[in-house]
Design brief:
With 90 residues, this protein is an alpha+beta fold. Helices cover 22% and strands 32% of the residues. It contains 2 helices and 5 strands. The chain has a 5-stranded antiparallel sheet, covered by helices on one side. A hairpin with a 2-residue loop joins strand 2 and strand 3. It starts with a strand and ends with a strand.
Length: 90
Amino acid sequence: LTMKTYLISYDLTKPDSNAEYTMLIKMIKSANRWSRPLKSLWLIQTDLSSLDIVNQLKSVVDIKDKIYVTEITRNWASINLSNSLLVGAN
């Protein structure tokens, strides 16, 4: 299977110091490759679908939290961010 790249963004209802936040980050970092270019925005590479990713992440967050996952392509642009799409690795 070919790994796909996904963007994950979220708004959590509880403060960043909450244990749920720590579990969410740990789950995101369990992806094959990951990067965190902005505070609540992640890029990951995985062979899972976007629905699979959402279903995994929702298991560790509050019912009122918001999560957005979308597949991205190489056609992207940014300002003051690394040109490396995925700089972190598990």
